[in-house]
Design brief:
Strand content: 5-15%
Mean pLDDT: 94
CATH topology: Rossmann fold
Order of helices and strands: EHHEHHEHHEHE
Radius of gyration: 14 Å
Structural class: alpha/beta
Distance between the termini: 15 Å
CATH class: Alpha Beta
CATH architecture: 3-Layer(aba) Sandwich
CATH superfamily: 5'-nuclease
Oligomer: single chain
Number of domains: 1
Strand order of the largest sheet: 3-2-1-4-5
Number of strands: 5
Amino acid sequence: MRLLLDTHILLRAAGEPEKLSTAGRNLLLAPENALYFSPASIWEVVIKRGLGRDDFQVDPARLRKLLIVNGYTEVSVTSDHALALDSLPPLHKDPFDRLLLAQARSEGMLLVSADTQLLRYGDGIIEV
């Protein structure tokens, strides 16, 4: 499967894998799964780190480098992804999460998330 990780799962996978559920770790470690990240997640880290959020105290440049070194593939954000936002009902207010879902659906990927608000969208999301 092609898996796009939401920002919180990405941060846990990169820095605190022990905080992932067993099912989540198994999903990310399965060799048949290809792991992807979005520049939207890096952007979110930059913004929330700049705001002083304790849960985003990671160097975004180092995070990106380590993701690539560890076999993650970066998926560019395109205008098609932005346009796909128009088809999402307003179930979730976080623009980063909405963009990640639109991106995953547009690219035929599954979004990996534990965000209960995001999970309300149903299709195209794997809960971990």
